Amino acid sequence: IMQLPVMKGCEVKASKHMLEQKQVEWVSVIELPVENFVRKNEFVLSTGIGCEDNPNLLESFVQDVIQSRASVLGFATGRYIYSIPDRILKKANQNDLIIIDVPWEVRFTDIWQSVMDKITEVKQKELQKVEDARQELINCVLKDKGLEDIAHTLYKHIKIPVAITDAEKRWRAYKFFNKDILESYRLEVQEIHLPP
């Protein structure tokens, strides 16, 4: 998000180390009260109106955003809040909430539009990857390729070890699956099927 042109004049003030780890799924603009209007993984934008002369109220607002499990809180500074207090930044750092100082001149609608466009672009790429995997798996079946090829194709797309079993829980194919796990699974299945 910080690479978007609209964010050029903005500055990360807290939890910079989380920029690559936090997901943003939506953007909202909110002032007091937060209540249940903010959800997990949101990028919350606020002017801080109503908190300008009350640092305790601002801290309470930030705490509510933290409890909502939002990813990012952007404060428009220069009108109601001129600088984000250190104790707010400390609280954000302790709770891995990214706080961004947004210059007053930057319109929230421009940020909202740019971020939502980026989210849409990422989601479309993910959908295309799913479609590519689906098509490749269909081709494996249509071309009568074996289960090893199917396991390899699955692994190539999901990057997680894959094991394929039959209806009797016997291993038919696997790709990068740990042999110890295979053996313990085989023993577990045998125990389940032992007669009483």
User: What's the number of extended β-strand segments?
Assistant: 7
> What is the end-to-end distance?
60 Å
Helix content: 40-55%
SSE succession: EEEHEHEHHEEH
Low-confidence stretches: none
Going across the biggest sheet, name each strand in turn.
Answer: 1-5-4-3-2
Give the averaged pLDDT, no decimals.
Answer: 90
Radius of gyration computed on alpha carbons: 25 Å
- Structural category: alpha/beta
Count of DSSP helices?
5
Shape: elongated
Largest sheet report: 5 strands, mixed
Strand portion: 15-25%
Word description of this protein:
22% of the residues are buried. Helices cover 42% and strands 17% of the residues. The model has no long low-confidence stretch (mean pLDDT 90). It is built from five helices and seven strands. Strand 3, helix 1 and strand 4 (72-77) form a beta-alpha-beta unit. The radius of gyration is 25 Å and the shape is elongated. Helix 1 runs parallel beside helix 2 and helix 3 packs antiparallel against helix 4 (147-158). The protein has a five-stranded mixed beta sheet. Strands 6-7 form a two-stranded antiparallel sheet. It is α/β, with parallel strands linked by helices and 196 residues long.
